[in-house]
Structure formats: C-alpha cells, structure tokens
Amino acid sequence: MKVYKLTAYESNGTVIMDESVEAGNDEEAKEKGHAILEEKNLLESTHRLASPTGKLILFHS
Fold it and tell me: Which domain of life is it from (predicted)?
C-alpha cells in the first residue's frame, strides 16, 4: 500500500483538512479521496490529492 496526501483549503489558503490515504494504486486513491471529500462536504473547496512521488491525482481550485 502507498500513502497519498489529501489536503483541502479555504479560499484564503488556510488548510481545513490534511489526511493520509492508503491505497494500492492511483485510481484506488482517487476513489478514496473523492469519497472522503464528499463525506466531509469539501468537494467544492480547493483540494488536492498527491501520490507519494508528488504526482497530483486529484485537484480542484
């Protein structure tokens, strides 16, 4: 399992969520990240999901 980093921000840049997501691959991480954002009602907030190598898997501004 790889550890991905999921972060969400307020419009002023303040971090409102910073979580680790464990997944076997990028697609699984994307699904898990989307589910977490949806659960926390943060889909419309600026957010990003980065792989362990720094690749952006999800991004919304």
Answer: Bacteria
Q: Judging by DSSP bridges, how do beta strands 56-60 and 2-9 pair with one another? A: unpaired
Looking at residues 31-50, what average pLDDT do you find? 97
Q: What is the DSSP secondary-structure string of 1-61?
A: -EEEEEEEE-TTS-EEEEEEEEESSHHHHHHHHHHHHHHTT-TTSEEEEE-TTS-EEEEE-
Instruction: Give the count of domains, the chain.
Output: 1
**Residue 18 belongs to what domain range?**
2-60
Average pLDDT, the chain: 97
Indicate the pLDDT class of residue 33, thresholds 50, 70 and 90: very high
**What's the angle, vertex CA 58, arms to CA 5 and CA 11, rounded to 5?**
85
